[in-house]
Specification:
This protein is about 5% helix and about 45% strand. It is mainly β. It has a single domain, classed as Rieske Iron-sulfur Protein, CATH 2.102.10. A hairpin with a 6-residue loop joins strand 6 and strand 7. The radius of gyration is 14 Å and the shape is globular.
């Protein structure tokens, strides 16, 4: 397991919103839903869509390209891209990262 790295301040992420951040050269998506902070990879594992341009519904993020959906708590696939686009590459989960809050600092374990 890696070290925890500060990626944001708690006040930067309002309930029901998300923000693209990076740490250690890794693109991350930080989100607040249900009073909790979550962190996953910022790119869809289907074809690399930028999830920071997607839509958040509860704890599910939807890719803006082909509408694959992922659960933020652990990155598992809720819905994979349909049609031919979904068949190009089989379902793959997002990488989920452990989040800690220390005062007003949001820390992620890389």
């Amino acid at each position: 397991m890696g070290d925890f790295t500060e990626v944001a301040k708690t006040g930067e992420i309002a309930e029901g919103t998300f923000k693209k951040v990076s740490a250690g050269g890794t693109g991350l998506l930080l989100a607040r839903a249900g009073g909790r902070l979550y962190c996953v990879g910022s790119r869809c594992p289907h074809l690399g869509g930028d999830l920071s341009k997607g839509r958040l519904t509860g704890t599910v993020i939807e890719c803006p390209l082909h509408h694959s959906q992922f659960e933020l708590s652990d990155g598992h696939v809720v819905k994979w891209a349909g049609g031919i686009m979904g068949k190009l590459k089989g379902p793959a989960s997002l990488k989920a990262y452990e989040v800690r809050v220390d005062g007003d600092r949001v820390l992620v374990r890389l």
